[in-house]
Amino acid sequence: MPYHRLKDLIKAIRACKTAADERAVIQKESAAIRTSFKEENNDARHSNVAKLLYIHMLGYPAHFGQIECLKLVASNRFADKRLGYLGIMLLLDENQEVLTLVTNSLKNDMNHSNMYIVGLALCTLGNISSPEMARDLCAEVEKLLGSSNAYIRKKAALCAMRIIRKVSDLQENFLSRAKNNLSDRNHGVLLTAITLIIEMCYQNPETLQTFRKAVPLLVRHLKTLVSAGFSQEHDVTGVTDPFLQVKILRLLRILGKGDAEASETMNDILAQVATNTESSKNVGNSILYETVQTIMEIQSESGLRVLAINILGKFLTNRDNNIRYVALTTLNKTVSIDTNAVQRHRNIILDCLRDGDISIRRRALELSFALINESNVRVLTRELLAFLEVADNEFKQGMTTKICLAADRFAPNKRWHIDTVLRVLKLAGNYVREEILSNFIRLVAQTTELNAYTAQKLYAALKSDISQESLTLAGVWVVGEYGDILIKGGNFEEEELVKEVTESDVIDLLESILAGPYANQVTREYVLTALMKLTSRFTSISSIQRIQAYIEKYNTSIEVEIQQRAVEYGNLFKVETIRPAVLERMPIPEVKEEVIRPTGDTGLLLEDIGANSSNSGIDSLVDFGGNDSTQSKKHAPENNKPPVDILADIFGSESAETTPPVAVEPQNVKHDIISLFNSESTTTPVTPVQNIHQTTSLDSLGLLGLGGTEVSSPPSTTATDQYVAYNKNGFKISLNPSKDTNNPNILNIEVTFLNIGVGATVQNLLFQAAVPKTQKLQMQPPSSTTILPGATAQQIIRVANPQKSNVRLRLRIVYSTPTGAKVDEISEFSGFPQEFW
């Protein structure tokens, strides 16, 4: 039995006890509605469509009622039109062909004498307009924007916003009307006009110049709202029309960005809003937040920026978690603009690390790292280490990386630096990245005056805890490298340092690590190599024999790499003349130049690892089995980092335009050890591809001097001798290598720059390259630094490769376009075949 009224249908559906009962009711009613539609029962059409819309909102199919909605729109009754347009908005979208039948009805209703019917048509067009409908009805909407009726002007502005979103070329038709509506006294019209102008500015930045002339008018509107008394029509908890205030502030932010004159005009009113708005209510906080956003975006005065940051600091003391989260997020964005002003709220930010909300803790953590500088590194690092001790596991890897990077950059002295990293290893050694561990080993090797101190600290740490993998690896490496210094003891004030350590104690510790529950293959590799190195550090015959016997136990290990290395180490005992030379202490790595940054740049990102470590597998002292990243990374703009320093710090070398790289001394020890194990070649070491990971891991202590070689597959080529090194954003770089006819050790590379799809002229082209330290680089100037669309430019680079190793290039590509776009990217290439080595 069909239900004749919508109310009866709703009652029947709510009375259903199961989903099956509900589906049965819906199916019966839908069948009855279809039958009624076929009978062309005009009296029941309104009720049927209403029931059909309710069925649609419950998630059941109701598409068969689309045509009936069109028939209701054609009716002369307002109630039918209202329901018909509602049905069209719910049942149709811009991709359906039926929508083309609505265009004529919309056009007729936009010219209706009843303003509410006009409003219905505008509302419908604003919700479902397709590009075709937007073009057809654009003239009617433009005319209604100038209507004398405020209700229609308001609806027309919102409809125009939908039209320019669908067809951006049509926004020229609404420019003058929108500008005129900015002078309207009706708050609703003014609000919609500003919304329309904001959309225009987003769609076409060229319109910014047109509307910047309206900044004084917007300032007057805002001043009137701030100083106006109580208005019952627009008052919201004591604030006059906060919605309009927020919209005006948002438009001012867009118009003032990058324009000093417009920014100067709005400075006073922004200060007035920031000081006079009540912050005890959420309405006032929303206005203050938009004010802060505007102040930070435009070219405002320094005092005004300090006022904005103080407002955010006040937000941090609010009990509402949402307000605190917004404050922390905004401070993260503004800390680079005025770091000193944010530093004043450091204590409140650190208190947020103990907040119960994980989102607030995460934002506070990011901001704390951004605040670290030379003057507060001790205080902030101490707080961050205290938080690391109780932090969730998901925070630990990022925290350990950033704390170590901050210590590396701002450390007041080497001892504090070592103590800080040791503390990190003790608290979260299982979450430390390989690059950080490699940097710490390098730091220990460079700080020769603290070798004894570091060895004893790590020995004491391992005696108390071997559960942290990175701590174990670092301790084993240091003990193996400086075991002779460790057993000599020393005078240190710390009580936890062990003053007397015997050779037997050291061997017992390493054996306990292998026998412990936390030992894995990498740990066993480290310990075996450390034990082998101790045979040249210790003087006791009994200790050396004990180590030899222990290593021989692994000659039958089920792990192939462990077995192979144990056998090799056993063979070293048979050649006493070679063993001391092979096991000599690692040479002190050279100190690399630091990357100089502007004072304001205090942020520490995970990407900084690539610029602060040498774990690239090319000139690394210690490689803990990590893979060299070959992905391009976007770096900061050119004024943030000196271009030469970037490449020099990554590769430990510089392009030939500055200082040539230092040649690496021949590794005689490496050749000796290869010949000892009957290698086929005594001149060029070959690393098997299938064994690359294990070899890199076992050679992490530098025993064999392999340096973590990696094999990378060449990229696809576009021509016979052309190799694509970079292809992004419509800009392509191809390399054409050829051997020098006079010197076979020199590779000439013709670099071709192609502007294939940038869409504009490439200007200020800067191309830099870096090579491993075993090679030398010479670059000639490019044929042009400006490349028109479809044009090319060339540049010649020469690589001296006396050791016949793989030519690996790290490239930096910088250019700009007339539209203001800037590109600054780093890329890597190592795809030349062996014939060019």
UniProtKB/TrEMBL annotation:
Gene3D superfamilies: 2.60.40.1230, Leucine-rich Repeat Variant (1.25.10.10)
Keyword Metal-binding: no
PROSITE patterns: GAE
Subcellular location: Cytoplasmic vesicle membrane; Golgi apparatus
GAE domain mapped to chain residues: 718-833
Source species, domain of life: Eukaryota
Record keywords, A-Z: Cytoplasmic vesicle, Golgi apparatus, Membrane, Protein transport, Transport
GO biological process, one term: vesicle-mediated transport
Pfam family, one: Alpha_adaptinC2
GO CC aspect terms: AP-1 adaptor complex; cytosol
PANTHER family referenced in this protein's UniProt entry, alphabetically: ADAPTIN, ALPHA/GAMMA/EPSILON
Protein family: Belongs to the adaptor complexes large subunit family.
Known partners and oligomeric status: Adaptor protein complex 1 (AP-1) is a heterotetramer composed of two large adaptins (gamma-type subunit APL4 and beta-type subunit APL2), a medium adaptin (mu-type subunit APM1) and a small adaptin (sigma-type subunit APS1). AP-1 interacts with clathrin.
Protein name listed in UniProt: AP-1 complex subunit gamma
